[in-house]
Amino acid sequence: MGYMITLRRIRKKDIEEVRNLALKSWRFAYKNIYKEKTIQKMILDYYSDKNFEKEFKDIKKGKAEFIVAIDSNKIVGYAHIAYEKRMWDVIRIYVNPKLLRKGIGSKLISKIEFFLKKKNAKKYTIHPHVKNKIAINFYKKAGFVREPKRDNGWNSPCFIKHL
Ligand SMILES: CC(C)(COP(=O)(O)OP(=O)(O)OC[C@H]1O[C@@H](n2cnc3c(N)ncnc32)[C@H](O)[C@@H]1OP(=O)(O)O)[C@@H](O)C(=O)NCCC(=O)NCCS
Predict the structure, then answer these.
(1) How far is the CA of 26 from the centre of ligand 1 (A)?
(2) Hey, which of 106, 110, 138, 161 would you mutate to test ligand 1's pocket, going by the most ligand atoms within 8 Å of its Cβ?
(3) Residue 61 lies in a domain
(4) Which residue's C-alpha comes closest to atom 9 of ligand 1?
(5) How far apart are the CA of 101 and the centre of ligand 1, in A?
(6) Model confidence pLDDT, tens digit, residues 29-56
(7) Residue 1 forms part of a structural domain
């Protein structure tokens, strides 16, 4: 059985909740990588209303997908994928730090791949922080392999998965 969640596309009313979860998850993922102040600044920037507006437009155009995972009416995780530089790339995948290792991340990946297969995509990439060992383990377990030629600099290695 496992941990039960439902998955659906993000809605405008989810923005604030996603932003709050982003802050918690970033603190967990990057506490030894970025300072608290930097994390707060980056969340305000990356999760700004303006950015969400663009993301909603891209979803409408079929150039992005943003899935939220829900348990008892609460958002417990989310994943955002976008078509950039002629390749589908996971921009974000985050799970509530209190609910790790329950399969939520894997379910988000499955949903993303369902979307990508409908789009006829043959592969997709992800660029975790080089020090984010948990995420890198998770991607390897999910079938990703290193793709050095698509690295975004030394601290942003590329991993690719063939569908
Ligand atoms: C990466 C992340 C999304 C994984 O989500 P999750 O719901 O915990 O993942 P799952 O429960 O589906 O794990 C699937 C498999 O990945 C591997 N894995 C996940 N977390 C791991 C960890 N802490 N250490 C080692 N392997 C891990 C395991 O093989 C796991 O299977 P198992 O539990 O049966 O052994 C989650 O850890 C997270 O939100 N991290 C913080 C945010 C982040 O770094 N996001 C990525 C940004 S690039």
Answers:
(1) 14
(2) 138
(3) yes
(4) 105
(5) 6
(6) 999 999 999 999 999 999 999 999 999 9
(7) no
pLDDT higher than 70, residue 128: yes
| Site residues for ligand 1, CB cut-off 6 Å | 25, 28-29, 93-95, 100-106, 128, 132, 134-135, 137-138, 141
pLDDT at 127 over 70: yes
Asked if residue 75 is part of any domain, the answer here is yes
Confidence (pTM) = 0.97
Domain count, the chain: 1
Q: Are 81 and 89 in contact (CB under 8 A)?
A: yes
- Which of 101, 129, 141 should be mutated for ligand 1, with most atoms under 8 A from CB? 101
Q: Which domain holds residue 29?
A: 6-162
Give 78-102 as a DSSP string.
EEEEEEETTEEEEEEEEE-GGGTTS
What whole-number distance in Å separates Cα of residue 4 and Cα of residue 122?
29
Any domain includes 86: yes
CB count within 10 Å of CB 71 equals 16
CATH at 134: 3.40.630.30
